[in-house]
């Protein structure tokens, strides 16, 4: 897809991967619509984009609140128009075992990223379908291909993102709307500072996989939309592990457990 002159909605655009993706899309000439809860951070990202000559609008919203997303979605459709691109990136969640997770927190973990992606897609898909064009990219983690100790709710929510993507793509098979599953290994963002106790639980095995900057993740996301790729796993070493896990699940699972968090 040619991105210049298009409209892209980016969720979780106040920080990390989402903010970097919004900035890069704006550099490509895309008008970006920034969604997240923190108004001041959205204003900062928007301000940077405008200073650089790009086009951006910020709409503060809690994406886990279906009614609020529907309301904001209607405002965006009326004020800006239907998006050509939807990047479902908003997400959070501490890495905890079931025993460590209060049930209310388990609900929140599923709410963002999964329900956030559902709500945003629900808000914009009808308008995209009416034009029968566009692209939806869902951001998840390599956690959606395997499992490791000490992060049950996080892993479940990332698998939900993968399942949602596969189901959505199947639903849209008769349309001209493309769907990308984007899975990353570790990315340098405020995520781990905002979800304390999680970074320490990354399995030692993943030290072989280089950490990406948010800008590198954003570049891969933008490329995936331009090329309308079905599935992207970054960095390449993470993709190698996902392939190995397909053929040798027992071996990779044992390595993840052996090098993973111990109670
Ligand atoms: N960092 C990594 O190593 C890594 C690796 C693979 C995948 N990912 C995934 O990438 C996604 C983005 O993470 P990141 O690393 O960029 O983290 P981040 O810097 O913490 O950014 C998370 C973004 O999601 C938004 N968000 C969270 N809950 C929200 C809600 N209820 N409503 C609206 N916005 C919400 C946050 O904005 P507000 O707080 O302002 O609402 C923020 O903009 C996550 O789903 C994460 O799992 C991250």
Describe the structure.
With 263 residues, the chain is an alpha/beta fold. The chain has one domain (7-258): 3-Layer(aba) Sandwich (Rossmann fold). The chain has helices at residues 16-27, 39-51, 66-79, 103-131, 152-171, 191-194, 214-227, 236-247, 249-258; strands at residues 7-11, 31-36, 55-60, 85-88, 134-141, 177-184, 187-188, 212-213, 231-234. The strands form two sheets. The protein has a seven-stranded parallel sheet with strand order 3-2-1-4-5-6-9, with helices on both faces. It has a two-stranded parallel sheet with strand order 7-8. Helix 1 (16-27) packs parallel to helix 2 (39-51), helix 3 (66-79) packs parallel to helix 4 and helix 4 (103-131) packs parallel to helix 5. The model has no long low-confidence stretch (mean pLDDT 98).
Mean pLDDT: 98
CATH architecture type: 3-Layer(aba) Sandwich
User: Any idea how many domains?
Assistant: 1
Ions and ligands: NADP nicotinamide-adenine-dinucleotide phosphate
**Rg, nearest Å:** 18 Å
Quick one: biggest sheet?
Answer: 7 strands, parallel
Ranges where pLDDT stays below 50 over 5 or more residues in a row are none
Helix-and-strand structural type: alpha/beta
Number of helices: 9
Overall, the morphology is globular
Q: In which range does the helix fraction lie?
A: 40-55%
CATH topology, by name, is Rossmann fold
Distance between the termini: 47 Å
- Looking at CATH, the homologous superfamily is NAD(P)-binding Rossmann-like Domain
Spatial strand arrangement across the major sheet: 3-2-1-4-5-6-9
Say how many strands there are: 9
Report the top-level CATH class: Alpha Beta
What is the chain-wise order of helices and strands?
EHEHEHEHEHEEHEHEHH
What share of residues are in beta strands? 15-25%
């Amino acid at each position: 897809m040619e991105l210049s002159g298009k409209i892209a909605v980016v969720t979780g655009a106040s920080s990390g991967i989402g903010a970097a993706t919004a900035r890069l899309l704006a550099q490509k000439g895309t008008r970006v619509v920034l969604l997240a809860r923190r108004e001041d951070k959205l204003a900062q990202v928007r301000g940077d984009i405008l200073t650089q000559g790009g086009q951006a609008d910020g709409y503060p919203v809690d994406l886990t609140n279906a009614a609020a997303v529907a309301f904001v979605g209607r405002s965006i459709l009326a004020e800006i128009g239907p998006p050509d691109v939807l990047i479902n990136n908003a997400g959070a969640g501490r890495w905890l075992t079931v025993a460590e997770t209060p049930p209310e927190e388990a609900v929140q973990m599923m709410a963002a990223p999964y329900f956030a992606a559902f709500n945003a897609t629900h808000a914009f898909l009808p308008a995209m379908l009416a034009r029968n064009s566009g692209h939806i990219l869902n951001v998840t983690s390599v956690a959606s291909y395997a499992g490791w100790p000490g992060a049950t709710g996080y892993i479940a929510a990332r698998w939900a993102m993968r399942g949602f993507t596969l189901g959505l793509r199947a639903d849209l098979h008769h349309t001209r709307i493309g769907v990308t599953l984007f899975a990353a290994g570790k990315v340098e963002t405020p995520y781990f500072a905002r979800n304390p106790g999680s970074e320490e639980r990354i399995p030692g095995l993943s030290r072989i996989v280089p950490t990406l900057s948010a800008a590198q993740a954003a570049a891969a996301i933008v490329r995936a939309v331009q090329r309308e790729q079905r599935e992207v796993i970054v960095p390449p070493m993470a993709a190698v592990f996902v392939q190995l896990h397909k053929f040798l699940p027992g071996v990779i699972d044992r390595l993840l457990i052996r090098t993973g968090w111990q109670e």
